[in-house]
């Protein structure tokens, strides 16, 4: 406390010249870092206006809305730095997808080391719950929607919410996403407002038709502006004509104005394979400029990438050819010697596809290459529009559909908003390829109202409401029926109860009754609500699905399962049954128990593969199948398309099939081999692995709340970490180093580098000599990463010791005297 007061006094006494008032009143050093790291020298006028709003400066809540690429993120970053550096409070940044969290951690991490604060990632398998207490430096938690819920719960439970001065929510309109995501976000924000009146909430949102509902929900100031640093010109390609879009026109006939015809000579083969003239649209800007081609499906992305590589002029091959060869080499190394056939063909032309079928490492390498100009064309799904920041000179929309669904206004604006790169292009342009049959639909979309944002709390027969009530009771936020009703009245759902046509307070009473019937809460009287042991276990193990990228369509990319409130009893039953017959001669049974229950429809069994695996099982593996209720005969009948017994649980059969995919990875099979064997995209397999590791962590927390499941605590403690990487125990210290994958970890281990300390204290040439194809630059980065990781762990131990000293001093004045 004394140290914090001293720092505050130092800031107070600092000369005014050391602060930049137009830049949110931040120290000059922050501006210098923005200029050196990001090329930002000053704020736009709207940013200065927004930051100087009296409500913002007074710490009140804010919702602000601008077009894509308008510079929304910078305002949030300035407010975050203000909390960390001036107010000396922690901050939480909530982002919608894992990929964006990972990108933001890398970007802000460069500031953290210079400004002496800490960035902690809460996404997929990362993030300590409860977070470590730090006594010297403030923390920025960067989290997905789902992990932010667990983070806020733990801070409330440990009475630490007062340490958080700011919560920033990117894509605030995802409150209306539907399903568990919107519900989870609404629940988290409501808890923050209820538990910490001093915490400022900042929401960035798309333009909505009912922004006043969100304003009332957050009691927030609303700021909007139509500023865009780079002019955007929107076009539609219809037949052989390019038409400019006049979005402000109210009459459909005036929306499209012909500006030119496409004049492009092509062969008969090209005309046959490219009737929409995508090649012509792309060739007009590449290779000097960049181009994004949004496609309706993943398969179409790959087809378009191959099409472009077949018909773009040969001179495109010469542009940055050495850099593209290095990218190919990098991708081969990331793939343990393998590379996708399509990428091998297209990358020499500066073209790649980008969708959820890629592994995380492949996606990152492709994104970095595109950002550096090595790649000039990405054929991508709509996921990229709401994902990482990859702008282009021209954006081509291959079709006005996402899968089979016509584009919404927000989806369209997100895609075309990627056109134009601030500081690089003077303008950007989008071209939507339109068929005449869709002309009326496009007109309606362009002149139609903005989307509404409606509460998702009542999804799937009020599951979100039940989850909310279970967590508030578990956290002791609500302890009576009356306090439950008071809390419910703070939700967005309550504000929208009339338009949703629900009696929310009656629904809350029904939800309490349902939780009681499920055995998750006890309610002896209306004034005594408590969770049961099972309810506490479900609440502690709760971790909803996370998404790598956007959407609930075929491009969606989920990565993390959890103990769904509806599966709590089933998980408990499965674990109890396992205690009686758990097969420990191999890891298959444990893998099955931590295979997520939901999202298994993503893995439709190939019955012939299923049958072959059953035939290859040894006696102990067959015992596992038998214990969970799957017989070899049933799988054989399914493979032969014959009738099967009706008493077999199809959900268990599907879950075991997903377990077999994980079991192959556990046995050190490469993701490429597993992808070929099960005919599942490698990216989807990687996401299943991440999902299972996250769910295993949830199951561990679940078991820690139930004494009768103590044995699982012992089994899962190490198993969870091994599952995260699918490596043997001795390789875990190595694969925990950022940038070190399984193949490289094996090479390091065989070269005698077996611990973090050994790598941190060595020289780059020593690693280069023992690891094949390892460059000096990559070796240096591995050593630096190991040193940072080692420093963080040492600091954690020091802070833990200091925390214990402070705790002892507070409890014992005599001890404090000795310490002093």
From TrEMBL:
Keyword DNA repair among record annotations: yes
Gene Ontology cellular component list: nucleus
Protein location: Nucleus
Helicase C-terminal domain sequence ranges: 274-469
Superkingdom to which the source organism belongs: Eukaryota
Database matches in PROSITE patterns: HELICASE_ATP_BIND_1 (PS51192), HELICASE_CTER (PS51194)
All copies of domain Helicase ATP-binding, residue ranges: 53-226
Keywords: ATP-binding, DNA damage, DNA repair, Helicase, Hydrolase, Nucleotide-binding, Nucleus
A GO molecular-function descriptor: nucleic acid binding
InterPro entries in the record: DEAD/DEAH_box_helicase_dom (IPR011545), Hel308_SKI2-like (IPR050474), Helicase_ATP-bd (IPR014001), Helicase_C-like (IPR001650), HTH_61 (IPR046931), P-loop_NTPase (IPR027417), POLQ-like_helical (IPR048960), WH-like_DNA-bd_sf (IPR036388)
Listed GO biological process terms: DNA repair
Broad class of the protein's primary localization: nucleus
Keyword Hydrolase belongs to the record: yes
Listed Pfam families: DEAD, Helicase_C, HTH_61, POLQ_helical
Catalytic activity: ATP + H2O = ADP + phosphate + H(+)
Entry protein name: Helicase POLQ-like
